[in-house]
Amino acid sequence: MLVVLAVFIVGLAVWHIYQVGKLSRQIDETRRLADESDRQRNQVQEELFRRLYEQRELDRQKLQFQAQLSEYEKYAALAQLALGAAHEINNPLLGILSHLELELRTTEDPADRSEIEQCIAGAKRISSTLRGLVNYARPSPPVLSRISLARLVADTVAFLENQPMLRGKILQIDVPSDLSLIRVDANQLSQVLMNLLLNAAEATPENGRIVVSAYKLAYVESLEVRVSDTGCGMPPEVLAHVFEPFYTTKRGRGTGLGLSISYAYIRSHGGDMRVDSVVDRGTTVTFTLPLRADEQTDEEKEKSLIVG
User: What pTM value is reported for the model?
Assistant: First the structure.
């Protein structure tokens, strides 16, 4: 009887152990299925978030593209308007200017001469605006030659150093003479530098400082040029529009095309331009120019405008 009872107890224990193991395996399987379900759910959520992000990014790019397209269409219309206006206005303007200059030669009364001189100045300003319109609307392709940036900056500064607006201001040039030659249109780049220097001079008070600096970028085959001043600076609402044509803060003294044309010139060379400014601290205009790796041809050597 005791043997039977012992066998029964052992059997019951074995059965119990078997049931516990089976239950444990079921629990483990349930956990595995739950973990797999969580993993799949997380994957679905991640995929959903990724697609939502991609869709949001596509929508943003679409809006940006539409805005750029709208800007291009506006500038294209402006270009056609500019060229038409230049053609219609320039010829009669030249006739008016010639007549005014002839009148000035034959007029002796100081009051009349002053009035004629004011008219001539106004006509020349209109002519300058027309040239700016044409340059903006139909810029000539760059004529490339290898030049020394240090020499070009020095020649540009020498040309401007007697301008009245530069008097009483400290002009500092930090352009190493051993910089690599760059392949650019010297005339266009000189115009860019002149425009930036004159803008800096207008914004800088007496005893203020204007600095032209340049250096080779560390990880990119490009040169970076900076024109900085310690002038009045620009608030953010003005800074956002500096490259827009006809946007000016000079109130009757500027056409608002200087920076637009300069930006177009730099972009046509494969570079870029930006403006940083702080009110009452000054402004820095920075532009980059690529160092082209192609070899200089004999024809380019003959056409080279400036050599180091």
Answer: 0.57
